[in-house]
């Protein structure tokens, strides 16, 4: 969905700037079907502007980078244990 993709990109671009992060990624899924509605990375590149093409901007971090879920999953583990 082009609209969801655009909203997600603006949100991650702003979050990266606000937190002075080197990069950020967003994946939005349809909870009923599991379909990917949006997948964005920041920084990114403009495919029509070849002078801006830099390899670190062209990498799809959602797919290529590994990330340990760490503390983000702990509340769910505790909740499951309590039930």
UniProtKB/TrEMBL annotation:
Cell location: Membrane
Keyword Membrane in annotation: yes
Domain of life assignment: Bacteria
Keyword list, A-Z: Membrane, Transferase
Family matches, as Pfam families: Transpeptidase
GO terms, biological process: cell wall organization
Residue intervals of the Penicillin-binding protein transpeptidase domain: 24-83
InterPro entries in alphabetical order: Beta-lactam/transpept (IPR050515), Beta-lactam/transpept-like (IPR012338), PCN-bd_Tpept (IPR001460)
SUPFAM superfamilies: beta-lactamase/transpeptidase-like
Gene3D superfamilies: DD-peptidase/beta-lactamase superfamily (3.40.710.10)
GO CC entries: plasma membrane
Identification of the protein by name: Peptidoglycan glycosyltransferase FtsI
Originating species: Vibrio parahaemolyticus
